[in-house]
Amino acid sequence: MRIWRGYHGSRSENITMVHAKPNFPGAIEQPSHSGPWDYLQKVPLVLYGPKRINAAGAPLTRPAGLVDVFPTAGELLDVDLPDRTGTVLGDALEEGAPQGPPKLMVSIVWDGAGRNVLERWPDRWPNLARLEREGTSYLNASIGSSPSITPATHSTLGTGAYPRSHGATAIRYRKADGTVGEAFWAGNPSFLKMTTFADITDQAYGNQSRVGIVAWKSWHLGMLGHGTLTPGGDADHAAIIGKSEGDIGANQSFYLTPPYLPGLTGLAEHAESLDRSDGEADGEWLGHDPLEQHDNPAWVEYETDVLLKLLDEEGYGQDAVPDLLFTNYKMTDIVGHEYTMDSPEMAEVLEAQDDALGAIVDYLDREVGDYVLLVTADHGHVPSAGRSGGWAVGNGRVIEDIDEHFEVPDGQSLVIDSGSTGLYFDFELMEEMSVTVPDVAEYLNGYTIRDNFGGGGPLPEGYEGRGDDPVFAATFARKQMPEIMECAFGSTRPPRGTDA
Q1: pLDDT tens across 282-317, in order?
Q2: What pLDDT is attached to residue 122?
Q3: Bridge partners, 248 (sequence order)
């Protein structure tokens, strides 16, 4: 079901690989996180607003999803949005709320900080825990589609639909000319096939709403929208943070980066403070250079500086026209890839993001008053292999073994590109060699840990005796999807509301 929702007929990979739990794509030291399993799908979904959102006291256990944000935003902002996939989170809305919309709605995504990450470090997010008590939290919220990957899920949040409809299936996708490209390449939102609630809200209020995003990748633009690409739309604020202090921008053909943000200082001071936090000025944080990657509290603090600067300078939430701001804190995701979710780095970065959340709430209470805050995540993360026993499935080896199995001539490959959960094929070569996608799927359904390890030596410690274990739970050609759905649900389309 989640795989079906994540499939787009012309853009998705040609073969889907569903990793057997707890196996994962990537390397032992650098895991990836794409799949349909609950530990990757379950995310926090918390709504908070002193005048607008119910204080539930404890998390609600009923199912909910990122698709529900779209209609809920329409209800809050008093905008007539099209009926798509989700339903209004009515139990979150305060019956005695003031007339009209709130002055500001802020949506915060903690990248990669799904429920399994929060449960792994339960004492590191007291501010979010307070919002869960004093607002409304959905304990069983799900992203709802697979691959569980950043461009797809941010676009689901923004559009209220799944990748099957909005087209943002993954980081890599098949383009109309048959080549494979990257989602939102060069910050171009034309990749997204549906309008977002920000697109529609801005136009509903005559482009008088302030709308903006502070983020780390163009992959996050799916929750914001199309900017000037929307017919009659204007240039929304966009601050995409780069690899160094002051490296802040966006594609100015569609968005506007306010001139006071490029060159903004403060990162070096945050890095120096982080360096000294262990009592030594040695240029390191937990053995890493604080400026080398976006994987530490210094970058969290710098992003918060950028966000609060934008809010303050542009006057978000200062009049009766509702404004919208979106942000993605990427650091938890980077840490999960670089050090795993079980690392001390994850604990400290999660705590830093929670501190930032507290600072944002303080600002909103002080400067805005009438606001709604949404906090969620775009996916969970993969436990360390040492804890889970999962096998890291290297795509490079998978591709080599496919070519060897089907006796592809040296210098050629049946695979032109790959993603974390699938492969893109060279159909001309496949036809020439009389190989079909189901042929490859059949081969991979028998693919084992021993095959993926390669060589004749002993398996790594901890995997002895597991050489015959399957790497994948299932592998299938995309054109087999209708048959699979018919078998599972008695229809080529699943029942509405099913999440499995």
Answers
A1: 888 888 888 887 899 999 999 999 999 999 999 999
A2: 98
A3: 241
Long-range contacts of 252-260 (CB under 8 A, 24+ apart): 253/188, 253/228, 254/187, 254/188, 254/189, 254/226, 254/227, 254/228, 254/229, 255/187, 255/227, 255/228, 258/310, 258/313, 258/314, 260/309, 260/313
Name the residue range of residue 148's domain.
Answer: 38-381
Asked if 114 and 375 touch (Cβ cutoff 8 Å), the reply is no
Dihedral pair phi/psi, residue 138, rounded to 5°: -110, 105
Same domain, 118 and 249: yes
Helix (H, G, I), strand (E, B) or coil at 153: helix
Count of residues in the chain: 500
pLDDT in tens, 435-491: 999 999 999 999 999 999 987 789 999 999 999 999 999 999 877 877 877 777 787
The tens digit of pLDDT for each residue in 156-181 reads: 999 999 999 999 999 999 999 999 99
* Through-space distance between the first and last CA atoms of the chain, rounded to whole angstroms: 5
28 in a structural domain? no
CA atoms within 13 A on the CB side of 491: 5
- Please give the single-letter amino acid code of residue 369: G
Task: Please give the Cα distance from 390 to 103 (Å, whole number).
Answer: 47
What are the C-alpha distances in Å from 61 to residues 54, 64, 66, 160, 437? 15, 9, 15, 21, 41
Cis peptide bond prior to 126, omega within 30° of 0: no
In a domain, 33, yes or no: no
Do both 294 and 413 map to the same domain?
A: no
What is the count of structural domains for the chain?
2
* Same-domain check for residues 309 and 444: no
